[in-house]
UniProtKB/TrEMBL annotation:
It comes from the Bacteria. Residues 3-130 form the DUF3597 domain. This is Oxidoreductase. InterPro entries: DUF3597 (IPR022016). It holds the Pfam family DUF3597. Residues 20-44 are annotated as: Disordered.
Length: 134
């Protein structure tokens, strides 16, 4: 399983939840999904419910004993999900998400790119991510 797949799994993105049918999305969730009139009928291979990524991560942060700023730090986001946040793991994730080669050589630039890329990919895979984080 790829590292990004593990992130999706930890957040419950892409999983069919029998106990949470179409009533699960929040009021703002429909604004960030497909535009009106697009050809994405419910149940046509799409996710059953959209995961509120910010609420889920904020909830996990509240349970942790340390202060983790997942909104700006890829290291903190990975720690929050109990995943390896080492440089090697982050480089592996960056390669998996097709990080530009020039950013891979500079850990600070890679971290900034990786944080944005992970949040964008979460949104692309059915996660409801606030627009100000994308």
């Amino acid at each position: 399983m790829s590292l990004f797949s593990t992130i999706l799994s930890k957040l419950g993105i892409g999983e069919a939840h029998a106990d949470t049918p179409a009533a699960a999305p929040t009021a703002g969730a429909t604004e960030t999904t497909t535009p009106a009139g697009s050809a994405a009928p419910a149940g046509a291979g799409s996710h059953i419910s959209q995961v509120d990524v910010a609420a889920k991560l904020d909830g996990l942060a509240a349970q942790k004993g340390e202060q983790l700023n997942w909104k700006t730090s890829i290291v903190d986001l990975l720690k929050l999900l109990d995943l390896d946040s080492s440089l090697t793991a982050r480089q592996e994730l960056a390669k998996e998400l097709n990080c530009p080669a020039d950013k891979l050589g500079d850990s600070a630039q890679m971290n900034v790119w990786l944080h944005k890329a992970v949040l964008q990919k979460l949104a692309d895979n059915g996660g409801n991510v606030p627009a100000d984080l994308l």
